[in-house]
Amino acid sequence: MRIHRTSGSDVLVIGGGIIGLVTAWRAAQRGLSTAVVDPDPGGGAARVAAGMLAAVTELHYGEEMLLGLNVASAKRYPRFAAELEAASGQDIGFRACGTLAVALDTDDRAHLRELHELQRRSGLKSDWLTGRECRRLEPMLAPGVRGGLRVDGDHQVDPRRLAAALLTACERAGVVFHRHRAERLSVVRDRAAGAVLADGSERAADQVVLAAGSLSARLAGVPDHVLPPVRPVKGQVLRLTVPTAYAPFLSRTVRAVVRGSHVYLVPRENGELVIGATSEEMGWDTTVTAGGVYELLRDAHELVPGITELPLTETRAGLRPASPDNAPLLGRTALPGLHLATGHHRNGVLLTPVTGDAMAQLLADGELPEVARPFSPGRFPSAAPVSQEQPA
Ligand code: GLY
C-alpha cells in the first residue's frame, strides 16, 4: 500500500473510547496539539457499560493498590462532571444516588459481611442494614432480602453520554479526529513516531498513546516486549425501560452476588434500567446469548421481582480490557515515545477522570502523578519501561 505522510501533532492517541478521549481532551487543554485515531470515536466498551462508580462496592481482596486509584477518581467525579458538562454543553447523567448491595441467603450475607469488614479495614464508609431496612429504602426489593450494605458514596454516570460529551469537548478543544483504523505503529530509529492508518495515510506525532482497550494488544508494529498484556473479558448487559407510571422503581443502584455471579441494576433518571453483567473469558466473541440474558434476568428477578413487568429494550455484549492484576496500565513503555492507557477492566468509567489527568501530566510534564505511578506498564516484565525519559 502507498503511504501518504502528513505533518504531525504533539500527541497521537490510538483509540477513541472514553479513555482515549479523556486523554486527548486533557492533553489539548495543556496546549498540546492532539489527534485521535479511531473509525468510530465515542464507541468501545463504554457503549455497553452500566456506568457504576463503584469504588467501595466493587472492592476485591488483593486489589488494595487499585482501590487507591479508584477512590481518587471517584472523588474527582463531581468536579470532572461539572467541567465536562460546561465544556461540552451536554449532561453526562452523573447521579449522586448511592448504592445498596444486598444478600438473598445466608451465604450471600456471609459474603457481604466479609466485604463490609474489608471495607472497614480499608477506611471506606458503608453501613450494614437489616433486610427490613433495605426494603424501606427500596420497596421493590424481594421480601427475602436478608440484609445489605448501604454505600452512599458509590454513584453512577451514563457512559454513552460521557463518551458523547468527551467527543464534543475534544472537538471544541481542537483535537483532530482521523476516522480510520490504526493499522500499525510507526517506529523510526527505535522510537514511536505515529501510526499508519487503514486509508494508507501516516500520522506522525512526537508522543503516541495506545488507548485502544482490548485491541491495544493487537496493534501491528508494537514490539513484542512492549505489547500490553490485556485480554478481552466479555460482559453481557441488558437495558429495560421503567414507564413513568412505575417511577420511582429504584432510587439507587442495587446489586448482589447471586450463586457466585455479580448482578447489578442501575436506574437512570431518564427511566432506563441497566442490568449487568456477565463476566466471560470468551476471547473476542460479543454474541448476546440466551443463557447470558436468562441468567441476568433470573438473578435480577430474584432481587427485584417487579422487573418482569418492564419492557426489555436492548441486549448487548462488550469487551472489558483486563490486565493480569485487573488494574490499568498507565504511562511510558520501553519503546521511547509510546505510552499506554489501557487495561481498565471493570473500572474504565470510574477511572476516566484520574486517567485523563495522569496521562496529560505525563504528556505535558514528562512524569506521572504520584497516584498513577504504581500502574506503570513496567510492573509487567513484557512491557518494562526504560528509565525516565523527558517529553519530546
Ligand atoms: N464494573 C462493572 C462491570 O464490569 O461489570
UniProtKB/TrEMBL annotation:
<keyword id="KW-0784">Thiamine biosynthesis</keyword>
<dbReference type="InterPro" id="IPR012727">
    <property type="entry name" value="Gly_oxidase_ThiO"/>
</dbReference>
<dbReference type="Pfam" id="PF01266">
    <property type="entry name" value="DAO"/>
</dbReference>
<dbReference type="InterPro" id="IPR006076">
    <property type="entry name" value="FAD-dep_OxRdtase"/>
</dbReference>
<comment type="pathway">
    <text>Cofactor biosynthesis; thiamine diphosphate biosynthesis.</text>
</comment>
<keyword id="KW-0560">Oxidoreductase</keyword>
<feature type="domain" description="FAD dependent oxidoreductase">
    <location>
        <begin position="10"/>
        <end position="362"/>
    </location>
</feature>
<dbReference type="GO" id="GO:0043799">
    <property type="term" value="F:glycine oxidase activity"/>
</dbReference>
<feature type="region of interest" description="Disordered">
    <location>
        <begin position="373"/>
        <end position="392"/>
    </location>
</feature>
<protein>
    <recommendedName>
        <fullName>glycine oxidase</fullName>
        <ecNumber>1.4.3.19</ecNumber>
    </recommendedName>
</protein>
<dbReference type="InterPro" id="IPR036188">
    <property type="entry name" value="FAD/NAD-bd_sf"/>
</dbReference>
